[in-house]
Design brief:
The structure holds two protein chains of two kinds. Chain A is α+β, with helices and mostly antiparallel strands. Chain A has 18 helices and 24 strands. In chain A, 27% of the residues lie in helices and 22% in strands. The longest helix of chain A has 22 residues. In chain B, 79% of the residues lie in helices and 0% in strands. Chain B has nine helices and no strands. In chain B, α2 packs antiparallel against α3. The chains are: A alpha+beta, B mainly alpha. At the A-B interface, α15, β17, α17 and α18 of A face α3, α4 and α9 of B. The structure holds iron/sulfur cluster (2 copies). The site of one iron/sulfur cluster (SF4) has 14 residues of chain A, from α15.
Chain lengths: 571, 279
């Protein structure tokens, strides 16, 4: 039986401006800044005009001297333009964690937790918003936004004198790589005086880039410069190198791109009848037997490591951002003086950006500085081929995880069907933790006895975040979990359509009285996106995993291979 | 690279190392405890009685823990292991406490029977939970039990519709008659539990044979429909298999829990009796 319905206006992108109090004068002021003056307003479509984007997607924020504008490690979704004053980019090793004022995700109190026992809602999904006509102030911004908590550093001068840093001045843009690439911030940025900064939501940045060629070029240049620098610093082999050596490496590094370049489709899957047909379509980065000239660093995307096996190829590992390929061969060459052919193939899964450090510079700048234990480990682990030497059936599982891109997961829900007694305690525990609305389905693709259930995997590269018009789907600033802000989700379904794993459900909403909410203009039901939030508000972690009586369910980080192997070993 | 991480330990080895050996160790410890606490006492049954009582509470806590998933009280599988271990220890302790398998006296004998019913159902459940999931996995399909009636109905409707459409289009009655006399009852049958419990596979086997036999009377179009019917016969059989075996696991819980409840009533009566007698 359907409950009564109520008609309200459907929210759209413009109902959630970044700054609801932005005035026309402020928009004028922003448009007069160099970055916007250099844009061609005529290249923007009427619906997404430059002034409208500025009005909706930007805001002016004042920071006081010592305020942290960006914290290293956060997953932000905004870029920043310095309007007035200076900020300092703190270079690695960066600020100590306690100074960064990291706050733990807000847990429910003991009473709230216990109340879940008897307070389970009888209604599916209720919504927090009533109608956007209530005024822009009615929608509170996500607690994850930068204005929710502000950390101010005392003694900023002393601190800066101890830390390597770079000063950015009025007109400089920062934070764009993290915002567009969905990467955690690699550095902290602190206000060195009272500054005025323009915050640009990534949706705005994306549209400025899309419609203005000049800005696109500018961003590309920044991206190449900054990501290269940051990337080299993050790489284990370069981390301890002196600045001059790093500068030489930067100049020698060759940037390469493999696979589909459509950034909105990083999960392009090759088509083909047989696995070898599909494998053949994956662009080759390094072929087995090829003499590898140097080291390949993965900048973004995922790559497959495989080895010839009779008439086919066996997948023995995978690589992602910041992982490298070819170090053991380079070390062997350095020790013996003879070129060493690669023992594995490296292929791009979808779209991969790499950096290649040629052998000559590696031999002169990097290899002599490697710690002996590190070099020894690199020689024995052979390119991070973590699954090398497995039984055939286990290799099948790895093929499966790679083929369906489950290697993207930091918290995939794996169910060992040989242990699962189909009791659905996991589903019930999830429901209990979420107002009686379970956030996953105990069904999904399977390989042998392992099923990957349809639950959000909190991806390394969360494609679902591409295209959300309001930024409602975001990374938790602390742990990087992908969360949906109920209060700013406008139910457009972009995330649900983008998620390649089908883990986001669009559900009809009701108000607190249990009435279905309908759009007052179209009459259509108002939806909201729901998915697993890894029980961040609960005590003790994901309820599903804790509730399973047979340890049949694991929230698996595909890169924590030790844990994964142990769990699978318990089959 | 340590390959053993990936290798599965044999269930028997797991049972021995995870349950039986720690259980035996616990039992030996308890024996020493009884000797120590009961030193100087002529009758140690009070001591063993209270230990038994504590074990029963521990065993029952498992059920309550299930409902409290929101509290960080340790993962449920650890509680399950503890439940199994405590159960394994409780059985010899019960015999030791009563001095016999079934104690003397009418009400104590009922308590004894009730205990053995709970313990027996527990042991049965232990093997059931270790055996059935593997059997279900090997069937290939994976379904949620609540969805089975709807899926079965969908399969039946699809076969019915295909046969009707075919009869209208070709005028041939071969498949329509086969549906009427063989398939209708097969698709209408709920779960077919007896066959699946005994692992007979008779219906599936004979139906597939009959389907093969029909091929000589069919043209190409009918053959195509027959191919789909064959798939749906197998699918329905798989659904029945899941329905039966998943059902058994749920029914087991519905037996074990009320039996436990009954046991507690007799235990309460027994304890009150003992306390009354003491005073
Ligand atoms: S919603 Fe989909 S794409 Fe986004 S993090 Fe979850 S599984 Fe990954
Ligand atoms: S709780 Fe564990 S055993 Fe029960 S259905 Fe979920 S995964 Fe299977």
């Amino acid at each position: 039986m359907r409950a009564e319905t109520v008609h309200i206006r459907q929210m759209d992108r413009w109902d959630n401006p970044l700054d609801p109090t932005m005035s026309p004068e402020q928009v004028e002021r922003i448009l007069a800044l160099d970055m916007f003056r250099n844009m061609d307003a005529g290249s923007f479509p009427a619906l997404l005009s430059l002034p409208r984007l500025v009005l909706n997607e930007t805001r002016l924020v004042e920071y006081q001297r010592g305020d942290l504008v960006v914290r290293a490690g956060d997953y932000g979704s905004s870029a920043f333009l310095v309007v007035r004053g200076n900020v300092a980019v703190i270079l690695p090793p960066g600020l100590p964690a306690e100074l960064l004022g990291r706050s733990a995700p807000k847990r429910k109190s003991l009473f709230q937790v216990l109340r879940q026992l008897w307070n389970d809602s009888r209604m599916p999904e209720t919504s927090h918003y009533t109608s956007p006509t209530a005024g822009p102030g009615a929608i509170t911004r996500s607690a994850g936004r930068s204005d929710s908590t502000r950390v101010t550093l005392a003694n900023v001068d002393t601190l800066l004198s101890k830390q390597p840093s770079v000063i950015l001045e009025a007109g400089d843009l920062f934070g764009e790589i993290g915002a567009l690439g969905r990467f955690p911030r690699s550095v902290s940025v602190v206000a060195t005086m009272d500054v005025e900064i323009l915050e640009i939501r990534w949706q705005g940045l994306r549209d400025f880039r899309r419609y203005d060629a000049h800005f696109r070029d500018h961003l590309n240049q920044l991206y190449r410069e900054r990501s290269l620098k940051a990337h080299l610093r993050e790489t284990p082999v370069c981390r301890h190198l002196a600045q001059e050596l790093l500068t030489d490496l930067e100049q020698a590094a060759i940037s390469e791109v493999y696979g589909e370049t459509d950034a909105n489709n990083p999960f392009w899957r090759p088509q083909g009848e047989s696995p070898s047909d599909r494998l053949a379509q994956e662009p080759m980065i390094v072929a087995e037997g090829q003499v590898l000239d140097g080291l390949v660093l993965i900048q973004s995307g995922f790559a497959r490591i495989s080895q010839k096996f009779n008439h086919g190829h066996r997948t023995v590992g995978f690589l992602g951002r910041n992982r490298m390929f070819g170090l053991s061969e380079a070390l062997q060459q350095w020790r013996t003086g003879h070129p060493v052919p690669s023992q594995f193939s490296l292929r791009a899964i979808g779209y991969v950006q790499t950096l290649r450090l040629p052998y000559a510079i590696l031999a002169s700048h990097v290899l002599p500085h490697l710690a002996p234990e590190f070099a020894q480990a690199a020689l024995t682990t052979r390119n991070g081929t973590v699954f090398e030497g497995l039984d055939r059936e286990d290799v099948g599982l790895i093929e499966f995880l790679v083929e369906y891109h489950y290697i993207n997961a930091t918290a995939a829900m794996l169910i060992n069907l040989d242990r699962c007694v189909r009791c659905d305690e996991c589903v019930q525990a999830c429901a209990r933790a979420h107002d009686n609305n379970p956030r996953f389905l105990r069904k999904g693709r399977r390989h042998d006895a392992v099923m990957v259930a349809t639950a959000c995997m909190h991806c390394l590269d969360p494609v679902c975040m591409i295209g959300c018009p309001t930024g409602a789907i975001h990374r938790n600033e602390r742990g990087g979990e992908v969360l949906i802000n109920d209060r700013t989700c406008i139910g457009c379904g972009t995330c649900a359509n983008s998620c390649p794993y089908g883990t986001i459900l669009m559900v009809e909403t009701r108000d607190a009285a249990g009435r279905y909410q309908h759009n007052q203009e179209t009459g259509l039901p108002i939806l909201k996106a729901t998915k697993c939030d890894l029980c961040l508000e609960q005590w003790g972690g994901p309820a599903c995993q804790r509730a399973c009586p047979r340890h049949a369910l694991l929230r698996a980080n595909m890169w924590d291979t030790r844990n994964l192997r142990r769990w699978m070993g318990w089959r | 690279m340590n390959k053993n991480n990936f290798q599965q330990r044999h269930p028997l080895v797991r049972f021995l190392t995870g349950t039986l050996l720690p259980g035996a160790a616990l039992l030996i410890l308890m024996g020493y405890g009884v000797r120590f606490l009961g030193a100087g006492l002529r009758d140690t049954s009070h001591v063993t009685g209270w230990i038994l009582f504590t074990m029963l509470i521990l065993l029952t806590l498992h059920t309550f823990r299930k409902k409290l998933t929101m509290l960080p009280l340790g993962a449920m599988h650890l509680w399950t292991n503890l439940h199994i271990l405590a159960g394994a220890v409780t059985i010899p302790l019960f015999v030791f406490h009563g001095g016999k398998w079934i104690p003397n006296g009418f009400l104590d004998a009922i308590l004894g029977i009730s205990f053995w019913l709970v313990a027996g159902s527990g042991v049965f459940g232990f093997f059931l939970y270790r055996n059935v999931p593997r059997r279900l996995t090997r069937r290939g399909i994976e379904v949620i039990q609540e969805r089975i009636p709807a899926l079965r109905a969908e399969a039946r409707q699809e076969v019915e519709q295909a046969v009707l459409d075919l009869a209208d289009a070709t005028g041939s009655t071969t498949l329509a008659e086969f549906y009427e006399f063989r398939l209708r009852s097969y698709f209408n049958k709920v779960c077919n539990s007896r066959e699946h419990l005994l692992d007979w596979n008779r219906s599936r086997f004979s139906l597939l044979n009959e389907i093969k036999g029909l091929e000589r009377y069919l043209d190409a179009r009918e053959m195509e429909v027959l191919g789909r019917i064959e798939e749906l016969v197998v699918y329905k059989d798989d659904l029945d298999y899941h329905c039966t075996l998943q059902g058994i696991m749920k029914i087991w819980l519905l037996v074990h829990l009320p039996l436990t409840f009954g046991l507690w009533m007799f235990v309460a009566w027994h304890v009150l009796n003992v306390l009354g007698f003491q005073s």
